[in-house]
Every structure is written in structure tokens, then in C-alpha cells.
């Protein structure tokens, strides 16, 4: 005979107190705990350095691990705001996770504790393994997680409060550790009630703590800013100034919507992996030459500025990620040490075919030694449009090699050059399967009219820019619908490294039009219509837009 054991019928206890709304409050507790954790993380980071901030460290790691197509999508979608989008996205994910942890921890406190601890460990790992990371960089994430755990337990406690007389009294004279120990076991309390008043008091305190620590941390982090030191830096006059511009060099004043010949620093496109921009003090800055040099050396910024051979040149810089018709190109008047003479002076070996440039944030950019030696006007740049490099554009030192995309030449926040070979080492982007050599492809872009624009019929300028650095632009032609290629007027040639503006007045009858542009280089290459995506070596194809005259 078998017996089936039956669980005793649950005792009918006192009616449970009104607990409705406990879960949303638990979610809120999770959010507030996360806010406290991030706030404390920022505050501790302010003592150590910007790279140790949990948000920055995790964001940096996400960038490092993100597959190239996603990165390309982010650059194409968010442009210069790609890092902002990343940080916001990371915070949204953290918020969702925190709310879920809060709800789960209502019943199982240890899950909440373990969850926050896990985030802390991940943040610490991200910070320590970052390119500029050291063991101390673990502290902000760990301290933040600790504060988050304390906040979560204290916030959840009033949600499962015991009736008076049972358990540890909620306030007054009970040591924090005892309360925490009690709070850890509070999830399974039977017949616990909800003390709304105490929850909101604790919540207010948590919010205050998050704002004060986070805000204070951000303020304190400003002491790492080098804006002041940058303003104080006086650049020497160039030994070789830029060639004077011919009259009428810039067509933009006469053509509405046309890109100016020179891009203002604040309008200059920015592409990099830095969530917080490296802050390098000129006095502390060092450039170290290593590897295949007869005379490996460490130079100060003064060594470079005092050489007396600075050149000033007008150069158009272009990003390999630029889509056909895109805006990731800009022109500036750069000031810097001529790279070829500098490298020869330090005896770079003929066996070296790659210069591995290192940025203070760990980025590596591999430039062909041959180009660095031979391309005229390649430089170690210190100035941009008459001022020291803006911090976002590499202050105090970056490299420029006309004719090469930025990812294989234009290393910002430059602190090291290792003369090596392409066989020996892959730079950052090459590890991510971008081409090891990146000559800029010839391109032309229509700036005006804007795509899909409607405008009154009549005469109107079609205009834009075209570039083929080191080779120069010889012609730009425009095709309206399937008509003949019509030659556009070009801005005067200033230098092959500089883009040229082009312009074609056209009489638009009412109707819709497809406008297409193509450039021809001074050495005879006609821009191909064949479409290629930016990955892995730069986009090709003709910029083509639809407009309507009404
Ligand atoms: N340290 C560092 N340098 C860098 C990069 C970077 O991510 N980190 N990006 C490169 C790329 S892809 C380009 S196109 C140029 C862009 O320079 P800009 O931001 O001054 O326009 O910088 C290059 N130098
Ligand atoms: Mo780039």
C-alpha cells in the first residue's frame, strides 16, 4: 500500500497588509541603487583618472569588442555623436538590468547583491584591461558596486518591513552592518508589510547621494582638462608658410550651401574611439621613437617646437568610413614638423615598412614608412587653423600624411612611433580586417541642392567639393538624368592635397531630376561608378541625388 503524503493546508494567517505596488517600488529601488553605484564610481574615478570611470571603461570595452559592421553603422547613423549614442545606450541597458534586479531581489536579496557585484567586476575588468589601465582603475567600479549593494538592501528593506516588535527596528541606533545583515535575509519574511514612507525617505536619500557623488565626481574630473594649458601654448611661426591663396580661391561665399574651402575647427568632423578625450599636458608630453631607428629617442614637445623647420600646409583629411556623398572629410591649415626629414634624422632603417603610431589612449595606427618618408607635406602636426590642435583633434601632437585615410596615418594624441614592419604587427583597424594600406580614393560630393530638396524652377547652382589628395582634381562633371556629362567650373587649384570646390549653374524646368557627379584626377583617373562600401578600403561609386523643381 502506498500513501501519498499531502502538504498540510496552509495556515490561514492574518490578512496580508496592502502590498500592491511593491514591484514597481522594487524596480525603482534597483534604479536608485544603480544611480548610487554610478555616482560613487564617478567620484572615486575623479581621484584616479577619467579612464577608470565605470561608464567610460565599459564603453571603451564595448567599442573595442564591437564588430566592424556595427561600428560602421554607428558612425554612419550617429556621426560625431556615435560615442554619445554608445554611452546613452549603455546607461539604458544598465537601467533595465537594475530595475529587473530590484524586482527579483525583492524575494531573493542575494540575486540583487550578486547582480550588482557582477556589474562591478565587469566594470573593474574593463577599466584594468583598458589600454591606459592600471590596477588602481578597478577601484571606482568596485567602490560603486559596494555602494550599490548597500543602497539596494536599504531601499528594499522598507518594502518587506516587519510589523513593530518583530525583527530589527528600522531606525535609531542600530548599526548599519546589523541592518544590512538583517536586510539580506528580509526577502523571505512572512507577513511582511510595506512601509511606503520609509521607502520614499530612503529613496530620496539615495537620489541625493547619487546626484552629489556623480555631479561632484564629474566636476572633480575637470581638473584633468588641459584647455587652460592649451590656451597658454604659444606655437612658433612656420619656417615655411603655406602658399598664398590665389584670388577667388573659395567659391563658397558666392554659392549658397557650398562647403567652405577651409573647415572651421569646431565644424571639423571627428572620428575616434575615445569616449573621454585624452587630456595631455604639453609639459608632460613625450614622443618616444622605438624599433628600427639608429637613434631611438624620447622627445619633449619643446624639442619639436624648437626645431626651427616647421611647415604650414593646407591639407584635406578624409575618413575611410565616409560613405559616398558623406561628410567625413575636412580641410585645415596645419602646422607641424616635416615628417620625412625628422625620420631620416633619427635614422629610420630601410627594413622598416610600417610606422606603428601609438596614441596615449592605446590606439595604434600603422602608416607605411615609405609614405611617411616620401609624401611631401607629411608632418607631425601641432597646429590647426592658426591654433594649437583642439583637444578632440589630437592635442598636443598628431600625425598627418596627405593622401592616406586617417585610420592609417592621422594618429591623434601621438606619444610613440615604432618603426617596424607590416609582417611583425597589425595595428588596431587592421586587426579588425580593414586594409593595411589606405590610399584615399578620388571622390566628388554634391553639397547643393540637398538630396530630395524642392525648389522653384529656374537657374540654380549645382555645387560641391571633390578630392584626390596628392594627385589633385583636374575635372568635375555633372550629369542631369541620363544626359551628357557637363563640365563644372572648379575653384583655383591651390595644392593637390586640398579638395577643390566645383560649381555648375543649371536651368531647371519644373520636374524631378536625378543629379550625378564624377571627378577626374590630375593623373587621369575617372572616378568609377562601381559601388563599394567603406569597408575595408574606402567607398567607391558616384554621388547621385534626386531633387524637384516646382
Ligand atoms: N588616437 C586616435 N587617433 C585617430 C583615431 C582614433 O580613433 N584614435 N581615428 C583615426 C581616424 S579613423 C580618422 S579618420 C582621423 C580623424 O581625425 P579627426 O577626428 O581629427 O577628424 O583620426 C585618426 N586618428
Ligand atoms: Mo577614419
UniProtKB/TrEMBL annotation:
Q: Which domain of life is it from?
A: Bacteria
Q: Where is the Oxidoreductase molybdopterin-binding domain?
A: 276-426
Q: Which SUPFAM superfamilies match?
A: E set domains, Oxidoreductase molybdopterin-binding domain
Task: Give the record's keywords alphabetically.
Answer: Membrane, Transmembrane, Transmembrane helix
An example of a GO molecular function for this protein is: heme binding
Record field: transmembrane: 25-48, 84-106, 113-132, 138-156, 199-221
Which parts of this chain are annotated as the region Disordered? 1-20
Q: Which residues form a coiled coil?
A: none
Q: Which GO terms describe its biological process?
A: sulfur compound metabolic process
Protein name, entry field: Molybdopterin-dependent oxidoreductase
